[in-house]
C-alpha cells in the first residue's frame, strides 16, 4: 500500500488518505462502507488540487489543515 490505492463504492462518503497508515485501515474502511483513495506520498500542493473531490480527509502529520485548502 505504499502507492496510490483506490476503493470505490457507490453512494458512500469518499475519503482521501494523505499519510501512511497501518495496513489494517483498508479493511476497517471497507467494513465501514467508505470509498477512499490512498495517497501516502502525495504532496501538500497535490492535496490542495484534489481535496474538493472528497468529503473526508485522513491526515496524521504530513501537513496542517486549514481553510486555504478549499
Would you write up a description of this structure?
With 70 residues, the protein is of the alpha/beta class. It is 23% helix and 20% strand. It has two helices and four strands; from the N terminus they run ββαβαβ. A four-stranded mixed β-sheet has the order 1-3-2-4, with no helix packed on it. It is globular and about 30 Å long. The N and C termini lie far apart (27 Å). The model has no long low-confidence stretch (mean pLDDT 81).
Summed up, what is this model?
The chain is 23% helix and 20% strand. The protein is of the alpha/beta class and 70 residues long.
For the terminal residues, how far apart are their CA atoms? 27 Å
- Counting DSSP H or I runs of 4 or more residues, the number of helices is 2
Q: In percent, how much strand structure appears in the residues?
A: 15-25%
Helix/strand order: EEHEHE
Number of strands: 4
Radius of gyration: 12 Å
Structural shape: globular
| Mean pLDDT figure | 81
Structural class: alpha/beta
Low-confidence runs: none
Strand neighbour order, sheet with most strands:
1-3-2-4
Largest sheet, if any?
Answer: 4 strands, mixed
Helix content: 10-25%
Give a topology summary.
Blueprint: E1 5-7, E2 14-17, H1 24-32, E3 35-38, H2 44-50, E4 56-58
Parallel strand pairs: 2-3, 2-4
Antiparallel strand pairs: 1-3
